[in-house]
Amino acid sequence: MTRHNEPRIGGLAVSDLLARDHEALVTRVLDELVAHVPVYDRLPRELVDGDVRRVVDHALRLFPSSLAGRLEPEELDSLTESAAMRADEGVPMEMVLAAYHRGARVALDHCLAQARADEIDGARAVAVTLLDHIERLTTAVAAGFARHGRTVLAEQADARQRLLGALLAGEGYRESAGPAELTLPDTWLVVQLEVGPHSDEADPAVDGDVAARRKLRRLRTEIDRHYASPVLWQPTATGALLLVPHADHGRLRTVLRGAGRAAGAPLWAAVATATSAEVATAVPLCREVMGVVRATGRPDGVYGLADVALDYQLRIASAAHPVLAALLAPLEGRPDLMRTLEVHQRTGMSRRRSALALGVHPNTVDNRLRRVADLTGLDPTDPAAVPTVRAALMARAAAAATDD
């Protein structure tokens, strides 16, 4: 069908009508999806305004090609890719298909509302072509979901998980490397990663699970793209365990900074270098280092044992631990005092930085620290008492971790 004999609606060729009203139609379709298609009303707004809007824009722009009978299969590739991403984020295929049908209905209603009495045949031709168009689009969507679950990729992922399991067990990893299509490096960077929340996860209007999966997918994509050899991943409740086949700590720090920006969330990483035979012992070390990092309130970043060596040593269980922890027992039930003491230590005993972190006046910090000294007999502002205060805080944190 050429332009001159294309169906006419409202006195215009349909492609001209759609081009004229394109942006308004895209917005109307998005509003319909959020209002009427389950799941879409719970997607993060940046996803709706980003990838979903791009897909709607592209699908509407393809319709004139369908009218003219010249829609090429490769023009649907981006829809297939988008469907694969929705599958990865946990959006059900039936909801994605429903979204395409809802969009087609909006476009058809828009055309029919402007059709004149003498344009009924043209409107019928538009409706029939639109049905054919939706068939092509939904086929592309199904292909995207099929791609996500492709057997070969699943088998390769399973093989790499078996390799990771063998490395964590300390045996059988040489035999597992072949099926995983991975050459064992001389050394690995063992990374215990903790990921803070994305702002969308705290938004009651957003599906928190979808937001969290998007955050982790962006994180993984950004990290993986920097390494030629595959990074082995094991998800955890708060992040992931990574085995990076590259021993460059500086590069890892740069990669993780970029990954944090891509994920839109703060990252804490505990890192150790290990051969394949040493991975099994390096993993618990990284977990312990992460425990120190989080217990002492350190800012997001990359930490090795050398960065937390003193606090790590202070956390090691000994007969002195309960004695040290008991020094702070008088502060139980006084979270304001305990928090002030912790922040005061963390800020290098700066009353002004402590006040800023706590959101109080510096005089309030002074008053609380004097109260700590009265209750415990330890003056947090006395340099001679600082090592004991720090050791007591670490012993208390170690006891709390054991209770958990």
Question: How does this structure look, described?
Answer:
- The structure is a single chain.
- By secondary structure, this protein is an alpha+beta fold.
- The protein folds into 3 domains: 3-148, Phycocyanins (Globin-like), CATH 1.10.490; 185-313, Alpha-Beta Plaits (2-Layer Sandwich), CATH 3.30.70; 317-403, Arc Repressor Mutant, subunit A (Orthogonal Bundle).
- The protein is built from 17 helices and 7 strands.
- The protein has helices spanning 14-20, 22-36, 45-67, 77-88, 93-113, 120-148, 151-169, 173-177, 208-224, 249-263, 279-295, 309-315, 320-326, 335-346, 351-358, 362-376, 386-403; strands spanning 8-9, 12-13, 188-195, 232-235, 239-244, 267-274, 301-303.
- A 5-stranded mixed beta sheet has the order 4-5-3-6-7. A two-stranded antiparallel sheet has the order 1-2.
- β6, α11 (279-295) and β7 (301-303) form a beta-alpha-beta unit.
- α14 packs across α16 (362-376).
- The longest helix is centred in the first third of the chain and has 29 residues, at 120-148.
Give the gist of this structure:
The protein has helices spanning 14-20, 22-36, 45-67, 77-88, 93-113, 120-148, 151-169, 173-177, 208-224, 249-263, 279-295, 309-315, 320-326, 335-346, 351-358, 362-376, 386-403; strands spanning 8-9, 12-13, 188-195, 232-235, 239-244, 267-274, 301-303.
Give the overall shape, derived from the CA principal axes. Answer: elongated
Helix and strand run: EEHHHHHHHHEHEEHEHEHHHHHH
Model regions low in confidence, pLDDT < 50 over at least 5 residues: none
Number of strands: 7
| CATH architecture call of the largest domain | Orthogonal Bundle
What separation lies between the terminal Cα atoms? Answer: 70 Å
CATH topology of the largest domain: Globin-like
Largest sheet: 5 strands, mixed
Domains, number: 3
Helical fraction equals: 55-70%
Radius of gyration, taken over Cα atoms and rounded to an integer in Å? 29 Å
